[in-house]
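Problem 3 from the worked examples.
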Amino acid sequence: MTADTIAAVPAPLPFRLRTALGVLLVGIFGVVAVPRARAAYRLQGIVNKYADYGLCMAGPTGSVVIQEDPAQFRALVRRRLISAGADEKPFARCGKLASDLSGRTFAELAYQATAGSFFEWGAGASAHNLSELYGELPNLEAIAAQAYPFSRKPLRELVRPSLGAKEAVHPSELPSPGKVHGLRTGGAVIRSAVDTTRGRILMLSTGQEPWAVRSRDLGRTWTPTSAWQAAVDGHANRCVSRVGGASFAIASRDSGGRPAILLEEGLMGQSSRRELGKVGDHVAVLGCDESGAVVLTQGKSPGSARVMACPLASAGCREIELPELAKRTDAVLDVARVARTVVIAVAKDGLVRVTTSRDEGVTMTPLSLVFDAREVGHALAPANTVPTLVPMGKRLMLQLTAPNAASAAESDVLISDDFGASFRTF
């Protein structure tokens, strides 16, 4: 070997090539595999809590729909919320799970809020909203994608509740309204039904001008009829409490005076005046049954509605303390009286709730949700749903219309067989 040949041989590298390749592979593993392994570890640690959270928020099906049908999960959670009482805390037990899932200790605070403080319940724009709760949840699909290939099972197989997980009661579905034709109640302050041999006649009045509609098919179809016929003698512009006995009418008043009703009793028509409300108010609804009357008065400003119970056994009327929701400026109220029960309907943001009393308003039942315009896909703009309570003998019909549209040919209704305690599809 010559000197020139020796000089052409390159000098050896200061490290072994296999060593460099090993270091490179370790680096790639650290950059790619370690984060995926960590994602797999995190996924295994939260999938059970994720399913437990679904059960806690939405009931028995929550652990499935939270992953497979998020829209249905949100619908169930919303139904739980709006069905709860204003002072209830429907998600209080779920706060710890939300904190564990999100890793944020403050996430638990929103879950301690009362139902009545949520925008969806009707609290107003400045309140809590459900999106606050959903925003704290981890994205399982993204974590599962990052965890591959260390975790290869589909999420539907991984998301399983733990043993002993507590589940909420499944929120009940609300009844869908049925259709009636020709029930034109727009502007009616007085509403009372009279059963005759020719069908049921619904007497309606502004207090000054009466009109009537008749149904021969149990209330599904209504046609105009005379308000002065013999079958309804004495009912025009009056709410008859007992045939041949007592009836209520809206009393005329001097300018600036308080609204009042007249109670006419006996065959001689002896009348007594019962004042109610405040100066400047007007009578918006007058309803009655065999035991007395209920009156809804309205002032000039929003949120000034008052409900008065006027039993026959008493010489005057007493104001009923309304729930806080009914005092809001954008709430719409209606009242009725059937089978010695006072019924109050409150509508706000497309939700209609009902409360009843069997002791002249001394105690009222908690507000019960009976209609949700969004859930049933109602054609009305949710904020515009107006409830109209129509007595039908011992039953009570709830008509659902838009403002100034109660004279439409077709309207949606629910029916109650238990004096307003619950409503069903008609």
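Problem 4, a separate protein:
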Amino acid sequence: MKGKFLILTFFLFVIYRCMSGRDSFNKVIGKYLTDSLDVKKLIGRDLKIIDEKIKDGRLLIKAVSQLDSSYFIIADIKKKIIVKKIRDPFNRYYTSSFDVSNNDIISFDATDNQLIYKATLLKNSTFNVVYRNKFLLPHKIVLNNNHQLFLTDNVYGISFVDLKSLKENDFANKIGETTNPISSNVSVPLSKSLNLISGQMIGSNTMQLYAIDSLDKIKWSYKLNSDNSQNISCYNIQKSFLIKNSDQIIALGKINGKLLWGRSFDYGYDLSVCIYGDRLLVILNEKVKPFSNDEENRQHSIIYLVDTGNGMILWKKEMNPKGQLTIVPKGEDLLFFENEQLTICSLTTGAKKMTNTYSKEELNKYPISVISDIINGDIYVKKLNDVYFW
């Protein structure tokens, strides 16, 4: 009888610890992620999401139904409502793309790269052709809030159309024929006044960058030494443009394109960045061998906070996480999610505030990716089941 009582007591203790661990986890996370949106529940679970991005508080979704119909869906994240659901005029799952600027919806398809369709957020609006021209093989479109339509992922440079004047500017022809097919992109967050576009290879290892103002003019250009255009990303912060170029990050002044600073990192690591206001997080990840046969594969990770004004490293932190490491900046803290562990550090100093270990089942609820609003820079976290947190 005494043995059964001890077993029952132990069993209740285990349940209590599990329950208290879950409450503790939810309590900790609840301080940072206070609201959520179940996207699949909002748009309908019969739709498969093909592509999505967040722009000015709106979630822009491309989805396909079980009847093979392609849709563009615009949802207000904070209000948790669908603003507009409209049929893709091309009805192509992967090659068509769309974007929204103010109340305009613009659609483009890479396999029929001569038509641009336009609709509005008005209730009964449908798509109509507004521009017809042969473009240089772009695959995506990006709209800022100044009627400028950038055609990116263009293997022969980058173009854009001013939707107000319906004039096209093809930057691939500004300096002659390109020498290498590459992918192009535009800086984020997008700006009404000045944006940086990349994607102009003018030599075996040189790329041309252009700063485009609100009048569709080239304000300045910059030649960047690069042997891998696929690793170039451009970011728009308050006083400069940051360019991630393979293992290097440089800052260019917005007024004249002057190089403000540059910093190289260890080439043996995969480099990624997170822009949080005017603060720059640099994350280096390297896969290393498991410490033992029965332990999950660990990777060596190095995290830096860099001063965007001068490129100085404010702090450095090294970790050896099990499996995937997800870093979420919230307020003045950084949340580090890995298998069975949550660590919270100060964003300002990098100092550890707490580390807790939880069950895999509990941590399976944590966000698996960080997504930034391409207009205002707000940060959201996304789980595998298409639930967004903020």
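Solution to problem 4. The domain at 269-390 is CATH 2.40.10.480 (Thrombin, subunit H). DSSP finds three helices and 32 strands in the chain.
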